[in-house]
C-alpha cells in the first residue's frame, strides 16, 4: 500500500463537518501542532528542525485559530518542506498570506470565499438599504431614548431616503462574492448592475444579472454608479484614494465589504463632509479592531464589526471547502478554489 499524503492541521479541531472530517482523516495522515507550536517563534523553530518531517498540505479550518504564527511571507514560506503542494484556509480574505510567494514555491493557496459569498452578499444588501434609506439617522435616534431626536428622525429622515430600485449598483470585483451581490441586488431591489474587473464576464453571466454593464476603466464605473461596492481582494495598495472618491457622481454612496486597507479613510471622511458622497456603509476598517473615530460617529455612515461573512453557515462551509480543496488537489490533481493558480510557474508533480 502506498503511504498516505500527510496534512498539517493548524488550529483547533473541526466543529461541524464531522462526517467529512472522518473521510478526510481516513485519506490522509493528519499532524496537528499544539497551541504553543503555532506561535510564530516556535512554529519557525519547528519548521527549521523539521519536527513534523515532510508533509504535503496545510489545513486551516477555522479563521479564529491557526493564524497565531502571523503573516505567511518570504521569511516563513521558504521554511516549508518542498513536499508541500497546497494550503487551504478558512476565510475569504488572504491579505495575511503572500500568495505570490506560495506560488513561487509551487504551493497552491485556496481560500473559502465561495463559502462566505451568501452571508457577505446578505450583509451588503443591508448596507445598500442603509445608505439609500439613511438608516443610521433613524437607528441612532431610536436608541438615543431622546423623544426630540426620535421625532426629528421620524419626520425628516424620509426626506433624505430613496428606494434602491432602478439605481445603478457599481461593483468593483465581480468574483464569487461580487457576483452573488449582483444577483441579489438585481433580484431583490431591481437595481441595474455595473462592474469593473480585470476580466469581463461572459455574455451569459452578464445576462443573468440584468445585462450588467462592464467598465474596463474604474473611473468610468465610479462616475456612472449611484452606489459603489468594493468586493475585490487587497492587492497590496490602497484602491479608494481621494482622487478616486472625487470621481464618484455627486451624491454617490459607498460600501466596503472587502478589506479596510483598500480605503483611505481620511479621504472618505473628507468627501462625506463635503457632501460629495451622501452615505457610506463599512463592514471592514483599515486599522481593525480600531474603527476610525470620525467615521464611527458620522451621521451618514453605517459601521459594522467585520461580520459580513460571520454566520454559522459560513463556518460550516469554510471547514468543508478547506478539506475538499486538499482532497481535490492531492487526490484528483485540481483544487476547487485556488487563488494563485495563475501565478504558479508550472504544474508540479505530487
UniProtKB/TrEMBL annotation:
A molecular-function term among this protein's GO annotations: NAD binding
Keywords assigned: Oxidoreductase
Keyword Oxidoreductase part of the UniProt annotation: yes
Superkingdom field: Eukaryota
Residue span, D-isomer specific 2-hydroxyacid dehydrogenase catalytic domain: 71-340
Membership in a protein family: Belongs to the D-isomer specific 2-hydroxyacid dehydrogenase family.
Record's protein name: D-mandelate dehydrogenase
Organism: Aspergillus leporis
